[in-house]
Design goal:
14 strands, 21% strand, Rossmann fold, eight-stranded mixed sheet, Asparaginase
Length: 331
């Protein structure tokens, strides 16, 4: 029997990290181990798929950039158009994995399963979690049931929808969760089982911008000033995502500043800093009056990625809150 062909695209991160001490899982240098060494450390891969690997980047994912996103998306698209490629695995740092997953989810750059995986402990750690996560990710990418389920995140024997997965812990190996929805499947040795299909698949792929709009995140908390918002507007920002309290509650001082920003043509979107839950959309979005567009259940970082792509595809959305709210309702 011919094994499925799976492409591994490496970008660095903790999964490719190393330390001078095997006993240390917190003090290490990310992105030092090449993808060839990561694969050699998991001999069981040869029984799962025919692997081809490409070192797309070698960075700590805290330093993710628009340029690298564009390069990664291009390589995903390139490999997905090869007739015999069953799936693509991306090794990634955990710090910005949820943002890259959201980007690839909305961009729809592949017709085959795209599986992101990572590690919370470096490759040299006494109890490194990267090798099993990599093996599980390849198992999922090669599995026929992964087809049509969009971008996936596989870590700690769980399968998450890329749209929903977030990093929810600083150091635990089960650091990733899908608040409000939970994982969509599991991996246990050779068993890959999907328990449900993700319902929020993109209805239309969004192109990556040629010129990325300036979109930033601001937070609401006790007695904020308006200086940050005013400075961002003065700098030419095109969109602002608010990490609001509770169900999208924003301090009155910040509401006034954001309403002024909206009148200046800046898109304003409310998310929540709580970590879970849906921000109720206004009956009639009117940002200049403080009725800001809702990001739904997207956290501020995923909402920013969505707003980046929305404004990149259609800059007029910044001045059309009704259509912008419709966009967020559908993703």
């Amino acid at each position: 029997m011919t094994l499925p062909r799976v492409i591994v695209l490496a970008t660095g991160g903790t999964i490719a990290g190393s330390s001078s001490s095997a006993a240390s899982s917190a003090r290490y240098q990310a992105a030092t181990v090449p993808v060839s060494a990561l694969l050699e450390a998991v001999p069981a891969l040869k029984d799962v798929a025919r692997i081809e690997a490409e070192q797309v980047a070698q960075i700590d994912s805290k330093d993710m950039s628009f340029g690298l996103w564009a390069r990664l998306a291009a390589r995903v698209h390139h490999w997905s158009t090869q007739d015999d490629v069953a799936g693509i695995v991306i090794t990634h740092g955990t710090d910005s994995l949820e943002e890259t997953a959201m980007l690839l989810h909305l961009a729809g750059v592949a017709s085959v399963p795209v599986v992101l995986t990572a590690a919370m402990r470096p490759a040299t750690s006494l109890s490194a979690d990267g090798p099993l996560n990599l093996l599980d990710a390849v198992r999922v990418a090669a599995h026929p049931d992964a087809a049509g389920k969009g971008v996936l995140v596989v870590i700690n024997q769980e399968i998450h929808a890329g749209r929903d997965a977030v990093k929810a812990h600083t150091s635990a190996v089960d650091a990733f969760a899908s608040p409000g929805t939970g994982p969509i499947g599991l991996v246990q040795d050779a068993l890959v089982r999907f328990t449900r299909a993700p319902l929020r698949l993109p209805r239309q792929a969004l192109p990556l911008p040629q010129n990325w709009p300036a979109v930033e995140i601001v937070a609401s908390y006790a007695q904020p000033g308006r200086a940050v918002v005013d400075a961002l507007v003065a700098s030419g920002v095109r969109g602002l995502v608010v990490a609001a309290a509770g169900n999208g509650s924003i301090h009155e001082t910040l509401v006034a500043a954001l309403a002024d920003a909206a009148r200046a043509g800046v898109a304003v979107v409310r998310s929540t800093r709580t970590g879970a839950g849906n921000v109720i959309a206004p009956a009639q979005p009117n940002p200049s009056a403080g009725a800001f567009v809702s990001a739904g259940d997207l956290n501020p970082y995923k909402a920013r990625v969505a707003l980046l792509l929305a404004l990149g595809a259609d800059p007029a959305l910044a001045g059309d809150p009704v259509r912008l709210q419709q966009f967020f309702a559908l993703i």
